[in-house]
Amino acid sequence: MRVDFGRTADDYVKHRAGFPESFFQRLAREGVLRAGLRALDVGTGTGTVARGLARWGCLVTAVDPSASMLDGARSLASEAELSIDWRLATAEHTGLPEGSVDLAVAGQCWHWFDRPAAAREAARVLVPGGRLVIAHLDWLAMPGNVVEATEGLLDVFNPQLVSPDVRFGHGVGVYPAWFQDLSRAGFQSLESFSFDVLLPYTPESWRGRMRASNKVGASLPPDAVARFDAALASLLAERFPGDSLAIPHRVFALVATRP
């Protein structure tokens, strides 16, 4: 399956929730995040992690291979009056000088990369003692909840698996294979944490979030996206009526140090 999030950039900008503030607070408590750090956000998408780092006082460079996603990121950062250096580049080839950043973050994107190459590039651009954070925010399917029902619909419209990691992470929200990625690249002092949060959506914003997902707007043809959206609207009206949805999510983060 060819996945192109640039095809769904509008919905991505409007509807994909970023990491909660509690994620950045946890990084700060762990001594990973502080003002003044030179930070790199790889696979930035619409810049949710980059904006969070900038709000905490970091000097942020953010890279992504999609020009349309970066356009959305620039707009959102401008609205928030945040200064970020946006660059069209990949996690595997950032174009940054060796040893030029103190902190590198990959949020909601590690599974899309050539992971060994991305780990080597992170090690190259980090200073000795610099930290790499790989983080993910998974919705949680539970018996009878809206996520379980939505995932059932996703499997009907697009049954192909994008990545074994993605499928494994869903429902559990942890990614043990990533520890091996970083160990093989020479990173040390690997630590991880996870916690659960409820993120609020309206029925309309949940539909937009689904259209912005890899199995819908980023991979299906437009007519199939429209059919999925109509089916999801019917499902929500019938089984989950009301004006608000509390969607359970799990934040997972792996923190490693460049020796």
From TrEMBL:
GO terms for molecular function: S-adenosylmethionine-dependent methyltransferase activity. Residues 40-134 form the Methyltransferase type domain. CDD domains: AdoMet_MTases. Keywords: Methyltransferase, Transferase. The keyword DNA damage does not apply. It comes from the Bacteria. The keyword Phosphoprotein does not apply. Belongs to the methyltransferase superfamily. This is Methyltransferase.
